[in-house]
Design goal:
The structure is a homotetramer.
Chain A (H helix, E strand, L loop, with lengths): L1 H31 L2 H7 L7 H4 L3 H25 L4 H18 L1 H12 L3 H27 L8 H21 L4 H6 L1 H15 L1
Helix pairs in contact in A: 1-2, 1-4, 1-6, 4-5, 4-7, 5-8, 5-10, 6-7, 7-8, 8-10
Chain B binds a DNA duplex (21 and 21 nucleotides) through helix 1.
Protein name (chains A, B, C, D): TetR family transcriptional regulator
Pfam family, one (chains A, B, C, D): TetR_N
Keywords (chains A, B, C, D): DNA-binding, Transcription, Transcription regulation
DNA sequence: TATGAATGAGGTTTCATTCAT
DNA sequence: AATGAATGAAACCTCATTCAT
C-alpha cells in the first residue's frame, strides 16, 4: 500500500515547510517573508509549496495553527501536574517564561497576528487565546470544585490569570527583564493571584 | 511675521499627514500601507510627504510617537483625579476601556510595533510601555507614601497592574467582550488588584 | 540531455537582451535608457531581465563587454591579413571606418563609458582600449622583427597609431565626413604613420 | 544708471551658476546632476536658476559653451607663441597635457557631450572640435606660407594633428600615464607629426 | 527679482504566483 | 508530483519645474 507511505511523506514535507515558514515569518513578518526563500530553505522547488498550501496567506495561517498547537501542548503539560492551585499557577507562569524564552519567535508571530491588521490572522490567533483561557478556566473550575477558591465569573477570572502570566511575562521580556529574574517572580505572582481571588468572592 | 504663520501651517500639515498615516497604518500595517494613498487622503501631492518625513519608516516612527503621546496624555489625565488608590485604579481601567474602544486603531498599530520584527519600531513602542509603567509606578508610590499599600517592587507591581488593565482589556476586546461589559468589570478588577497587594507585603 | 538545449536557449535569450540593450543604451544613454522598454523590445517580461542580469548597471557592463568583444574581433580580423605594415595599417584604418559606420551606436556607448563619470563603466571601457593598443603593438612588433620599422616605445607608438585611426575617424565622422571620403584617406594616413616612424628611430 | 550695475550683477550670477554647474555636471554627468544642488552650491534659490536658464538642458549647453571658450583660449594662447612649426606643435601638445590634467572634469564633460546620445549636446561639442581644427589649420597654413611644410588637405591634416595630441593624450591619461611621462613625449610626438608631413606632399 | 514649497511623472526592482515540462 | 523560468503588478522615492508670495 504505497498510498499510506505517500501520505506519510506528504505530511512530513508539509511539516517541514511549516517549520521553515515559521522561522522566516518570525524573522521577517508576513509581508517581508519570502515564499521562494522558504521553499529553498525547505529544500523544495518554488512551485512545490503551492501543492501543499494554496497561497502565502494560507501558509501563514497553517503555520499559525501549527505553533498554536505546539504552545498549547506546552501549557497543557504544565498544568497537568498535580498540586494545589497555587502550585499549578506557578507552573503555568514558569511554562510561559520558558516559552517566551525558547519560542520567542513564535510568540512574536502570534502577537503580531493577534493585534495585527489582517482579519483572518487575527481570527486564527484568537482561537489560541480562547484555548488558553479555556485551559485555565478548567483548572480554576477544578479548584473551585475542590473548594480551594470561589470565583464569580470563571472565564473573566481565567483571562485575568492569563494577563498576569502571559501578557505580564511578554511585557517584562520586552522591557528587558531576564528569564532568571522572571523565574523568581513565579511564586510572588501566584500569591498575588490567589490573594486576588478573595476579591472575587 | 509671516514666519510664524508658515510655521503654523507647516505644523498643521504635519499633523494632518500623521492623522491620515495613522489611519492607513492601522488599517493595513506598515508594509501594506501605501504612501501615495496617505498623501492622497491627506490632500497633498505624492512628493510633498517627503518634505515632512524622510521616508516611510520615519513617517511610521513619527506616527508612533504621535499616538504614544496622545495615549499617554489620556492615561495621565485619568490618574490625575483625586481619590484613593482603588478609585484611581478604576479610573485607569476605564481610561483603557475608552482608549481600546475609541483608539482601537492606535492600539493595533502600537501592539504590532511592540511585537513586530522591526527593531526600530519595537524600540519606539517600548518607550510607551515604559511610560505607562512609570506613570502607574508613580501612583503606587504615592499610595504607599499615604500608607494605602505596601509593595516590595514598585516597578514589577506596576507592570502587573498594567497587565491587569491594558492587556486584560485588549484580550477581552479581542475575545469579543463589549465595552459595556468591560465597564462593569472596572470595580471588580480594581478590587482584585488591591487584594493582590496583600500578597506583596 | 535537455540541459544543453535549455542552456542554449538561455544563452540565446541573454544575447537577445544584450542586443536590444545595446540599441537602447546607444540611443538614450545609461540613465535615460528604460529597462522596461528593453524588456519589451526583447519580447520578454519586465522581471525576466533580472533573471539574466542582476540590475541595470550589470546589464550595461555586460553589454559593454559584449560590444568590446565584437569590435575587437573585427579589428583582429582586419590585422590578421598578410601584407607589409603599411598595408596592414590601411586595413586597420578601413576596419575602423567600417565599424564607425555600421556600429556607430556601439562606438557611442563605448566612448560615453570611457569618458563618463561612472567608475565601473570607465574601467570596463578602458579594457577595450588596452586591448586595441595590445593588438596594434603586436603588429608593430612583428614589423620590427621583420625589419620594416624600428620604434623606441612600442606601446606609446601603438597608442599613436590608434589615435590616428580610431580617434581620427571618430572625430572626422562627428565633423560630418562621409564614409566614402574617409575610405580614400586610408592610404594617405598609413603613409603618414609610416613616415612618422622615421622620427621614432 | 543702475541698469548697468544690474546687468553686471546678473552676468556675475550667471557666471557663478555656470561654474557650479560645471563642477556638478563633471562630477555626476547630465542625468545624475541635480539642479537643486547646483542652485544651493551657487548660493541662490531653486527657482532663481530658471531666471537665468530656461531649463536643465539649456544650462548644460551654456556650461558647455562656457568650458569650450575657456579651453579654446588656452589652446590659442599656447599656439600664439613664436617659433617654428615643430616648436608650436610641442606647445600645443603641452597645452593639452596641462588641460587634461587641470581641467580633466571639463574634458570629461566635453567628451561625454561629443560622443553622448543627446543630439543638442553633440552639436555644441562639435563646435569646439571645429574650433580646435580651425586653430590648428591656421597654424599649418602659416607654416605652409613660410614654406616649412607642404600639405595637401589642410583640414584633414589639422584633424590628424588634433588626434595625435588631444585624443592621444586623453587615451594615455585613461590608460594611466602620468602627466610627467606625457610631458617628455611632447618633442617626440611633434617630430612624429613633422616627419609625417613628408607623406602629405 | 528672488524664493522654495509643492507637485507628480517616471523608473527600478521585488516577489507571489502560474504553467509548461 | 515536482520544478523553476517567466511574469507583471505594485510602490517608494527623486527631482525638474512651477507659481504664489
Amino acid at each position: 500500500m504505497p498510498k499510506i507511505v505517500d501520505e506519510q511523506m506528504r505530511e512530513a514535507t508539509r511539516q517541514h515547510i511549516l517549520h521553515e515558514a515559521a522561522k522566516e515569518f518570525a524573522r521577517l513578518g508576513f509581508d517581508q517573508a519570502n515564499i521562494n526563500l522558504i521553499a529553498e530553505k525547505a529544500g523544495i522547488g518554488k512551485g512545490t509549496i503551492y501543492l501543499y498550501f494554496e497561497n502565502k496567506r494560507e501558509l501563514f495561517l497553517a503555520m499559525l495553527r501549527f505553533i498554536a498547537q505546539s504552545q498549547l501542548a506546552a501549557i497543557r503539560g504544565a498544568l497537568a501536574q498535580h498540586g494545589n492551585l497555587q502550585m499549578r499557577l506557578e507552573q503555568l507562569f514558569l511554562a510561559f517564561v520558558r516559552l517566551a524564552e525558547k519560542e520567542s519567535d513564535s510568540f512574536n508571530v502570534y502577537m503580531s497576528a493577534l493585534y495585527g491588521v489582517n482579519r483572518a490572522f487575527r481570527t486564527e490567533a484568537t482561537k489560541l487565546l480562547r484555548d488558553y483561557v479555556a485551559v485555565i478556566a478548567l483548572v480554576l473550575e477544578e479548584a473551585q470544585v475542590r473548594g480551594e477558591i470561589r470565583v464569580r465569573n470563571i472565564d473573566t477570572t481565567a483571562l485575568m490569570v492569563l494577563s498576569l502570566t502571559e501578557s505580564f511575562i511578554l511585557s517584562a521580556r520586552v522591557l528587558g527583564q531576564s528569564e532568571q529574574t522572571l523565574v523568581t517572580q513565579a511564586s510572588q505572582t501566584a500569591q498575588f493571584i490567589m490573594q486576588g481571588f478573595v476579591a472575587s468572592v
